[in-house]
């Protein structure tokens, strides 16, 4: 479960990147966070994961305040950043073992999970290569495997499908659905509206730091009194906000 209460963030005292944001994402849901470039999506995610501190407000991950109990909160979630260009000099297996050590995943269990996930994402043959030799999509997949090693209850994914080949994107979407069906939480940002329309239980639309809508697709259609696509309703909300 994710709870965001009256959270605001500005940079250098200028205009707000996020303003008075309130969101509750219960367990058992895939929640899509949508918005144009610069709308506040990544800033929100960085506050959720403790990378940035909010100016005011509070964020709870599975009941743990990310500011007051950062280690306890971080043990409950896995985070995929918007850029996979991390630890490039490490070999794939070195990176995964590093992640396993960080989250205290026992060696035997770790190896079983790495073998299974690497096979799913077609990375088994390159785990001995340096990450800097990987393509963007391969880097995205190795980061995803590292996130899943400790089987976190909450997934926080910033544009996770960017750069993935169709097979890997399909597998990840299946995994997201299966995770939510186990009464766990998936929060992901995306600009691919078709994916959000098909995959998400609920969506939030943010623009210029302000939440424009939160709910399911039918609730959005009721709000607009329209049978339009998510794309059309999204453009109407963000063009005039």
UniProtKB/TrEMBL annotation:
Every copy of the ABC transporter domain together lies at 2-233
SMART domains on file: AAA
Q: Which domain of life is it from?
A: Bacteria
Q: Indicate whether Nucleotide-binding appears among the record's keywords.
A: yes
Gene3D superfamilies the record matches: P-loop containing nucleotide triphosphate hydrolases
Q: Name one Pfam family in it.
A: ABC_tran
Cite the PROSITE patterns for this sequence.
ABC_TRANSPORTER_1, ABC_TRANSPORTER_2
Q: Cell division as a keyword?
A: no
Q: What keywords is this UniProt entry annotated with?
A: ATP-binding, Nucleotide-binding, Transport
What's an example of a GO molecular-function annotation for this chain?
Answer: ATP binding
Q: Which CDD domains match?
A: ABC_DR_subfamily_A
Q: Which residues form the signal peptide?
A: none
Q: Which PANTHER family match?
A: ABC TRANSPORTER ATP-BINDING PROTEIN ALBC-RELATED
The protein's name: ABC transporter ATP-binding protein
Origin organism is Ectobacillus antri
